[in-house]
Design brief:
The structure holds two protein chains of two kinds. By secondary structure, chain A is an alpha/beta fold. Chain A is built from six helices and ten strands. Chain A is globular and about 45 Å long. The two termini of chain A are about 20 Å apart. Chain B folds into two domains: about 180 residues, no CATH class; about 190 residues, no CATH class. In chain B, strands 1, 2, 3, 4, 5, 6, 7, 8, 9, 10, 11 and 12 form a twelve-stranded mixed beta sheet that branches. The longest helix of chain B is centred in the C-terminal third of the chain and has 44 residues. The chains are: A alpha/beta, B alpha+beta.
Chain lengths: ~220, ~400
């Protein structure tokens, strides 16, 4: 499903080039559950952004479902994000002053399919928040907000879920709930790629990759 | 992208920041309202001024000759003019100035008592020649105007202005009745069609026409005129005619070189043009003021939208992550600016139309709602939103989603 071939990313920070990724090559199968571990500044967020088509590599080739997305235009990449990728963030990133169900429905505006409020409500029910439809983001607990964010990531039925420290802002038990939902999604056949610095989360993965100084290494399978 | 839900979410988004939306709309509202009022009032003032001048002066292809060196703008009459303009002057101008087709002679007086049975009034008395009707472009409603024969034979016939007729004959047909002008009896031969208001807003219909010769010999006993109206052969030759008439009258009145004229000449068309140019200068000035106000409204849109963009970086990042292209973000912020600007504009137009109605009533102008003004104000509001929203929207579109999400 995903093939990275010698992906490099060089940033310019205050005019000084900074290498975030060095010749990263990896293949991730459809339906896999992958944890990418790395400390802060290791390049793991950069890798996730490239995987999520939010960023383009400086060099190398990224094949997503067989299509080369490393040189696509902004509009084309947006289309790919809209149809194939769901994002989950550490800080949930729900829109303020917007109800849960509106947050969940947001990606439909940018997709080709028709916008359906009932579909958004279904997604909310699916993450156990049917009773929270008309609550604003600020009225929800952290765990609830993250579940709304997961529902939002699912609304366009993506095959790939990218999670950036999804439990980082949650306590242990709500974090566990979120991980359970991710497992369910994986069981449905969706590919999950989760980026974290937390060693404990690695046990959820079928496959663990380590990233350090922009270099990606295979780790031994944990579970 | 789904346009309709996108549009709905725009409106919902705006309704969540009401105070800010109001602020953005306010500038445009004020600008568009003042623009609407100014252009509407300006146009109806111009038209009304034209109409009133036309009412007073009749046709414009004339030169007006009055006694005295100063161009006093008030109503002339026998009691307040120099006795310099004679009947022979009128004949000489008609005969000797090639640009002039014909000359109407006028001898008028105010404050003469007029009576019919127990009704009385003091309409202005105008001794005129028969061609006055043609030169003024007036119309007789009933009966006949003064004829050449009346002028030749000094008949005592009168033609009543609409107001004078109403005053003296509130409930009778005036034709054939005998009225007393001063102590002299006149037979009413006709009644005029109303002329309406003059430039100052007063009535132009409280008057009575009689033959100018009768006025001179039988009523006032004066051998000078209060005004001549000389009709041009060609409306564009006003200045040439004025020069020739001036030369002729100076010779006839034996005025030494360097001395002042004892008459004055005006071309109504020139006066009219002067008045309307002045009007349009004021209009232009007011227009600049209104455009400034609208421009300030536009700048408010830019700055408030810019604040919104920097506050909503995270939202931009989220929208980008869930599939929004740069174009979609651009459209969102531009759409917000246009929507607010248009809403502000529509409120402005409403206020403007209301304001125009008020000012019209206050200044006794006809209320004139021009579709062109409403349409261009609407178009202007949209254009303002586009023009002043495009930079913030472009900034929003160019926001790097990764940086925005990291904030």
């Amino acid at each position: 499903m995903i093939r990275l071939e010698q992906i490099s990313k060089v940033y310019s920070r205050d005019g000084v080039p900074v290498t975030a990724l060095r010749d990263v090559s990896v293949a991730i199968d459809s339906g896999d559950f992958v944890v990418i571990r790395g400390v802060s500044g290791s390049g793991k967020s950069t890798l996730l952004n490239i995987l999520g088509c939010l960023d383009l590599p400086t060099a190398g080739t990224y094949l997503l479902d067989g299509a080369n997305v490393s040189h696509k235009s902004d509009a084309e990449l947006s289309h790919v994000r809209s149809r194939k990728i769901g994002f989950i963030f550490q800080s949930f990133n729900l829109l303020p002053r917007t109800t849960a169900v509106e947050n969940v429905g947001l990606p439909m505006i940018y997709a080709d399919q028709a916008v359906s409020r009932s579909r958004a409500a279904q997604m909310l029910a699916r993450v156990g928040l049917a009773h929270r439809e008309h609550h604003y983001a600020t009225e929800l607990s952290g765990g609830e907000q993250q579940r709304v964010a997961i529902a939002r990531s699912l609304i366009n039925d993506p095959s790939l879920i990218l999670a950036d420290e999804p439990t980082g802002n949650l306590d242990e038990s709500t974090g566990a709930e979120v991980m359970n939902i991710l497992h369910e999604l994986n069981d449905e056949g969706r590919t999950i790629i989760l980026v974290t610095h937390d060693e404990a989360l690695a046990r959820h993965a079928r496959r663990v990759l380590l990233i350090r100084d922009g270099l990606l290494h295979e780790s031994e399978v944990q579970a | 992208m789904n346009i309709l839900p996108f549009f709905r979410s725009l409106v919902r988004g705006l309704s969540r920041k009401k105070a800010r939306a109001m602020l953005m709309m306010a500038g445009v509202t004020v600008g568009i309202a003042s623009l609407t009022i100014l252009t509407s009032i300006g146009e109806s003032t111009r038209r009304e001024t034209m109409k009133r001048f036309k009412n007073m002066l009749g046709t414009f292809d004339t030169v007006i000759i009055r006694p005295g060196s100063s161009k006093n703008r008030g109503m002339v009459s026998l009691t307040n003019v120099e006795p310099s303009l004679k009947f022979e002057d009128a004949a000489a101008i008609a005969a000797q100035v090639p640009e002039i087709r014909q000359v109407a002679q006028i001898q008028n007086a105010l404050d003469i008592d007029v009576k019919y049975r127990d009704h009385s009034g003091t309409p202005a008395i105008f001794g005129v020649t028969a061609n006055f009707l043609d030169l003024r472009g007036d119309q007789v409603a009933n009966g006949d105007f003064i004829t050449d024969e009346d002028v030749r034979s000094l008949t005592k016939v009168a033609v009543l202005g609409a107001d004078a007729s109403k005053q003296l004959f509130p409930d009778e047909d005036p034709l054939g009745k005998i009225i007393q002008i001063g102590d002299v009896p006149f037979v009413v031969h006709g009644v005029m069609v109303a002329r309406g208001a003059g430039p100052a807003g007063g009535s132009l219909d409280n008057l009575i026409f009689i033959p100018v010769t009768t006025a001179s010999k039988r009523l006032f006993n004066r051998d000078f005129l209060t005004m001549l109206i000389a009709q041009l052969e060609d409306a564009s030759q006003g200045q040439l005619a004025i020069d020739h008439i001036q030369a002729l009258l100076r010779t006839r009145h034996h005025i030494a070189a360097g001395a002042l004229d004892d008459f004055n000449l005006t071309n109504p068309k020139a006066v009219m043009e002067q008045v309307t140019t002045m009007g349009s200068t004021i209009r232009k000035l007011l227009l600049v003021v209104a455009i400034l106000a609208t421009g300030i409204g536009g700048v408010v849109i830019t700055s408030v939208t810019l604040i919104g963009v920097s506050e909503r970086r995270k939202e931009i990042g989220v929208r980008r992550a869930v599939g929004a292209s740069r174009g979609a973000i651009l459209l969102q912020f531009l759409g917000e600016a246009v929507l607010l600007s248009l809403a502000g504009g529509i409120i402005g137009i409403t206020i403007g139309v209301g304001g125009t109605q008020m000012v019209s009533k206050f200044q006794r102008l006809p209320f004139l709602l021009q579709p062109a003004v409403v349409l261009s104000a609407t178009a202007l509001s949209i254009a303002l939103g586009l023009l002043f929203g495009v930079y913030p929207a472009w900034k929003a579109a160019m926001t790097n989603p990764i940086d925005a999400l990291r904030d």
